[in-house]
Known about the structure:
Elements: H1 31-48, H2 52-56, H3 62-72, H4 91-100, H5 106-117, H6 120-125, H7 128-140, E1 145-148, E2 164-167, E3 173-184, E4 191-198, E5 202-209, E6 215-217, E7 231-242, E8 246-247, H8 253-289, E9 291-292, E10 295-296, H9 301-337, H10 344-351, H11 353-378, H12 388-396, H13 406-422, H14 428-439, H15 453-477, H16 485-513, H17 519-548, H18 551-564, H19 572-586
Parallel strand pairs: 1-4, 2-4
Antiparallel strand pairs: 2-3, 3-7, 4-5, 5-8, 6-7, 9-10
Family: Belongs to the acyl-CoA dehydrogenase family.
GO molecular function, one term: flavin adenine dinucleotide binding
InterPro entries: Acyl-CoA-dh-like_C, Acyl-CoA_DH_CS, Acyl-CoA_Oxase/DH_mid-dom, Acyl-CoA_Oxase/DH_mid-dom_sf, AcylCo_DH-like_C, AcylCo_DH/oxidase_C, AcylCoA_DH/ox_N, AcylCoA_DH/ox_N_sf
Amino acid sequence: xxxxxxxxxxxxxxxxxxxxxxxxxxxxxxxxxxxxxxxxxxxxxxxxxxxxxxxxxxxxxxxxxxxxxxxxxxxxxxxxxxxxxxxxxxxxxxxxxxxxxxxxxxxxxxxxxxxxxxxxxxxxxxxxxxxxxxxxxxxxxxxxxxxxxxxxxxxxxxxxxxxxxxxxxxxxxxxxxxxxxxxxxxxxxxxxxxxxxxxxxxxxxxxxxxxxxxxxxxxxxxxxxxxxxxxxxxxxxxxxxxxxxxxxxxxxxxxxxxxxxxxxxxxxxxxxxxxxxxxxxxxxxxxxxxxxxxxxxxxxxxxxxxxxxxxxxxxxxxxxxxxxxxxxxxxxxxxxxxxxxxxxxxxxxxxxxxxxxxxxxxxxxxxxxxxxxxxxxxxxxxxxxxxxxxxxxxxxxxxxxxxxxxxxxxxxxxxxxxxxxxxxxxxxxxxxxxxxxxxxxxxxxxxxxxxxxxxxxxxxxxxxxxxxxxxxxxxxxxxxxxxxxxxxxxxxxxxxxxxxxxxxxxxxxxxxxxxxxxxxxxxxxxxxxxxxxxxxxxxxxxxxxxxxxxxxxxxxxxxxxxxxxxxxxxxxxxxxxxxxxxxxxxxxxxx
Length: 591
């Protein structure tokens, strides 16, 4: 597979083009990856799904047993280096594992908290001694990890933490005092990454082991969903931590917190994709057997519309996610080759932080759509705990809050673009100026009959719509733009749809060129997504323009948004029926 790393920089999809040949898709998984995926499916179906009620009831020791089993299969430490007890698998493979286990409800929450935010801070910021002490045990599950950042007064504002750390008089330890809330795995974790402010000022991370005097735990939280995951408060009362357990640099805790979140956001997209696929399987099975008016409800167009939209959203999420995972994998390898091996993955994830934020939003919202319509298709039975779709509905809701709320992630998308533009990392403003010049010229009405030219033009115009709106807003509002959150959210929605649209089209084109048996269905998905996205981008663009422009400037930009969000008429009704027909035939998500 050709590398795309050299041609696409982080956030560069807006100003750079890609080809199907240089785009990684799920159809490109190698034999080993497919074997690992099959192992994950077997583990999920044999060891997790039959015990969902017991997991939700927090049967004593069950979650730990499941994590131990996953560890024995190598699933916990798959992405950790072999030097620290892991399997050394690449980023694409570790993403695939998360996706394949994403249907594990509370189990996947515990697992990703353990081998993601619960382990990666030590792996990437720990001293060699810290890595040798903890990582091999975290890789096997002998030790379980957790991450303690959130406090009663600081959620999205992580740096507003009040927990303090004071160096002891003898200089050999730090004394922690404070409180953490919503700590996943707190009921059984052996090691915590805890954030506190040294002398109330310097935001710093510490490794805190279970059983440390002065560390105590609240009762298990009673949650709307993910009831089987352990969620407790942590209390630090003169909790003495050896100075050797200081993690990373003093005052640089934010570097750990924010860099780890980039990886977590993409992995959350993977987990939500896996969860959605299980919900689709559950829902289509019900729709095929539930009869009303003397026929299965799967025969009805209204139901087929919902089923097809589930497939479309999942195809889009997977296409965007694995495209990004490949970029991160390529960048990690390049950084490692340059001698930056210790933090290569973090550096790669930071490069694609914009895409990671996009994926977090689109993945969690795709899952929300799937489970919500899944309940609707189940009708009254969907509201009953006897049907697993009700659990899926409850469990899904947290994902729009995890890893930074979707609102925060939307704001971050534009914030990162603007900051990178100011630092010269990405020439967004230059591209925006080019679009402004194009708007003053006569449109090109020449026809291009080459395959997929019309679809590619639609995507290229989506990008121009964003550049026009973002460039205009930045010029008009300058530094005040960061306070216009509604406009930033509109621009983010345009970027999210555009990234998905391009990813979907590139994957469908590649499948068509490769003669894939499902290529025609993929093209139906691509055409439907482009057609619908044009309306969504048009709506968001008009809302943004009306929020900052007026007079002639407003009229000109509204003409521009109309020009850049045109899509050829397409019979999405029939396309969705064709997509639904394949889903109904196969009985599960089929890509």
